[in-house]
Design goal:
Elements: E1 2-6, H1 11-21, E2 27-31, H2 37-41, E3 54-57, H3 71-81, E4 88-92, E5 101-104, E6 109-112, H4 113-119, E7 123-129, H5 138-146, E8 151-156, H6 161-168, H7 170-173, E9 181-184, H8 190-194, E10 204-206, H9 218-224, E11 235-241, H10 249-259, E12 264-270, H11 274-283, E13 286-291, E14 305-306, H12 308-313, E15 318-322, E16 325-329, H13 331-337, H14 341-345, E17 351-355, H15 359-370, E18 374-379, H16 382-392, E19 395-398, E20 411-414, E21 439-442, H17 451-458, E22 462-464, H18 466-482
Parallel strand pairs: 1-2, 1-10, 2-3, 3-4, 4-7, 7-8, 8-9, 11-12, 11-13, 14-16, 17-18, 17-20, 18-19, 20-21, 21-22
Antiparallel strand pairs: 5-6, 13-15, 15-16
Helix pairs in contact: 6-11, 10-18, 13-15, 13-18
Length: 494
């Protein structure tokens, strides 16, 4: 189930949130702590106004909520609201039984909240939050919460791939606990939210805003990742990197899987340790994955086979499972060449300037060298370009001398990250001028028109954006993963 966390300040706003997301969700969580005081007083009416089950939650500030009231007042509000037709009520694990006895004005007697809820068929979720780490006694905590007969909920914060492994181990260690909610918060936890069923979790939370660290939208969870429809037969693929949140690759692969009715999902994994990720890959049976910075070299010791391009370039961007071993491929090589193959074959491109000497430039320089194009590498630190230049019999120079190379090449390739992220709006090579007859190729795909490409377009150059290479290399990865060509009818919005 996908549960929409409602973060509106009024019941009307929350009803609108449910309506907007209705086709993607099965349940909603009403966050009492987000409501105004006046709205909190009438919150008990909310479940009867929508057509899906509702969890009632009143989260304290220290547990990631908005409530700053005293504990007695907070729980009294929770009790009053719980008189509505809620399916679940969330109570924190450290709330004592004695704190859940209230004087009911209507009955003029003490009422026990837990007994009241159970007598009405409302299930209690006992929740534990840790915004610092994954506690060492995670399995014990879940067992203790479940021991009370309630649904245990643990929301913890993984800080490493080993922490992520611990969260995924919950299901195999505690499979006897049928109903539980297990999730990882923050950037490392995103994969546990998407693959919540692999953690043995009853549901996964999502929100239109950032209801909690790592929340994705209901539409993203349901349409892009199909998180609520994954099952034990689903093949898991993904992308590993650090950082990885910016990746557009899921927008290529998941629609492709869906179009050919291939039961698979492609998930981003934030990875700090390649070794730990390979342990996770074995544990949850990952079938293949893309590799982005900074892991394109560090995955190689774990591969049983590598292609000629990986060996030559020293960089692997795709790993697939074949015959009980991992095979490394480099689709950047052919993905880069795809938009310019005809120009090279026709002799329109015989020389190239490549800006940058980092990991991305290796595939570019080797691809051009292997196709007979004479390459000059321009880099801020010329010495960093020397090794690659020596390997490929290329020339190299400092980026400071870029103005000397105006008009010297038919192809100019920009491989650095200048122009994206915190460097967006910058030109990596301001002194280089274009004559207008060059083909200018930018590897950055966001934004689609960088200052570098914009300058080239104004000069009359033929321009190629990074989205073309991303798409072409992605199609080759898709073939390596599935054995099928990428469906031509899928329109990908990067």
């Amino acid at each position: 189930m996908l549960c929409l966390t409602l973060t509106g300040s009024t019941l009307e706003e929350n009803r609108a949130l449910v309506e907007r997301n209705r086709k993607w969700i099965s349940i909603a969580e009403l966050r009492l702590d987000f409501l105004t005081p006046d709205e909190q007083k009438i919150a008990s009416s909310f479940p009867s106004t929508i057509d899906i089950p509702v969890i009632l939650t009143m989260r304290r500030k220290e547990d990631g909520g908005q409530c700053i009231l005293g504990e007695k007042q907070r729980l009294q509000l929770l009790y009053e609201a719980s008189k509505g037709d809620f399916a679940y009520v969330d109570i924190e694990e450290d709330v004592k039984k004695s704190d859940l006895k209230f004087k009911d004005v209507f009955f003029e007697q003490k009422v026990d909240l837990e007994s009241s809820l159970k007598n009405r068929g409302i299930k209690i979720i006992r929740s534990y939050h840790d915004f610092e780490c994954v506690p060492a006694d995670l399995f014990g905590r879940i067992q203790k919460l479940a021991g009370k007969g309630d649904i245990p909920k643990v929301a913890v914060t993984p800080k490493s791939m080993m922490d992520v492994i611990t969260i995924f181990r919950v299901q195999q260690e505690l499979s006897a606990i049928k109903e539980k909610i297990v999730l990882g918060m923050g950037p490392f936890g995103v994969c546990t939210r998407i693959l919540y069923k692999k953690c043995g979790s009853l549901l996964s939370f999502c929100s239109d805003g950032q209801g909690a660290p790592g929340h994705l939208t209901a539409q993203t969870m349901s349409e892009l990742y199909r998180a609520d429809r994954l099952d034990s037969r689903t093949h898991i693929y993904g992308v590993i990197g650090n950082p990885v949140a910016h990746t557009a690759s899921p927008k290529i692969h998941n629609p492709g899987f869906d179009a050919i009715r291939y039961n698979a999902v492609y998930v981003p994994f934030l990875v700090d340790s390649v070794r730990a990720f390979f342990k996770l890959a074995e544990m949850i049976q990952i079938h293949g994955f893309s590799v982005t910075v900074p892991h394109k070299r560090s995955v190689q010791p774990y591969l049983g086979r590598i292609t000629r391009e990986v060996k030559q370039i020293g960089s692997c961007n795709t790993v697939v499972r074949i015959q009980n071993m991992w095979k490394g491929i480099n689709t950047d090589y052919y993905g880069f060449l795809a938009p310019i193959n005809d120009k090279i074959a026709n002799g329109e491109i015989r020389s190239a300037l490549v800006i940058g000497a980092g990991g991305a430039s290796r595939a570019v320089v080797w691809a051009l060298h292997n196709h007979g194009v004479k390459v000059t590498i321009l880099n801020r630190t010329a010495e960093h370009a020397k090794t690659l230049a020596d390997e490929t019999m290329s020339s190299y120079d400092s980026l400071d001398n870029a103005h000397l190379y105006t008009g010297s090449a038919e192809l100019i390739v920009q491989t650095t990250n200048v122009g994206m992220g915190n460097l967006e709006g910058q030109d990596p090579c301001p002194s280089l001028e274009f004559c207008g007859n060059e083909t200018v190729y930018e590897l950055i795909y966001k934004p689609p028109l960088t200052p570098f490409l914009s300058k080239a377009e104004k000069a009359g150059c033929t321009i190629i954006g990074g989205a073309q290479m991303l798409m072409e290399q992605g199609k080759l990865q898709f073939e390596a993963f599935t054995g099928y060509h990428y469906p031509y009818w899928v329109q990908v919005d990067l």
